[in-house]
Amino acid sequence: MNESGSAIIIAQTKKWIRDVVVGCNFCPFAAKELKRGSIHYEVVPEVTTVKALESVLKLLHQLDNNDDIETSFLILPKSFPLFDEFLHLLHLAETLLAKENYEGIYQIASFHPDYLFAGSIATDPSNYTNRSPYPMMHFLREDSVRKAIDSYPDIDEVPDRNIAFTKEKGLQYMQQLLKNSY
Fold first, then answer.
1. d(CA 7, CA 125)
2. Of residues 45, 3, 50, the one with CA closest to residue 135
3. How does DSSP assign 60-106, residue by residue?
4. 112 contacts: CB under 8 Å, gap ≥ 6
5. Which among 106, 108, 109, 110 has a CA at the least distance from the CA of 143?
6. How far is 81 from 85, CA to CA, in rounded Å?
7. Closest CA relative to residue 175, chosen from 113, 120, 116, 117
């Protein structure tokens, strides 16, 4: 993929974060980092599992060496289209975090066009809290997450609030919102 293709995918991801993640207030901390420009975006097209894990490690080292990057997205636009394959990659990435002694330093949030919470059905609107234009892993600094959580009242209510929001809006609304967000 050329540079302009990556730029388009990054622009679409930023629009999705602004319109869906921030617009629906799914993450009460995202707007601040979006405004600050402290989010790094890495597009890695058409990769194998091994290459994706190499990209994860490279991204972790980049976070280690750059305090100006608060959080980072590894975007996999042409890889892992099946959610189960993506979940396997996510498991391997979390195992890599532990193996490389990054547990407690970074954590991974995951997003996918076909995200499906355990025990839910594909048409449950709540899945749209984690549905995105592309398969992607979001790397967050644990210290920052702790500080944000400590400063936010009723943080435990956020998931329930997000689920209630998606169910109130309904499946068609959430499908259209995602479609229009990139």
1. 29
2. 45
3. HHHHHH-TT--EEEEE-TTS--SHHHHHHHHHHHHHHHHHTT-BTTE
4. 80, 83, 86, 130, 131, 132, 135, 136
5. 106
6. 7
7. 113
Furthest CA-CA distance within the chain = 44
Tell me, what's the pLDDT at 25? 92
The secondary structure element, H or E, covering residue 3 is helix 3-16
pLDDT at 107 exceeding the cut of 70: yes
For 136-174, the DSSP string reads EEEEEEHHHHHHHHHHSTTGGGHHHHHHHHHHHH-HHHH
The whole model's pTM is what?
Answer: 0.93
Q: Supply 159's token pair.
A: 């998931």
Amino acid code (one letter) for 15: K
- Name the phi and psi angles at 107, rounded to 5: -135, 160
What's the pLDDT tens digit per position in 36-70? 999 999 999 889 999 999 999 999 999 999 999 99
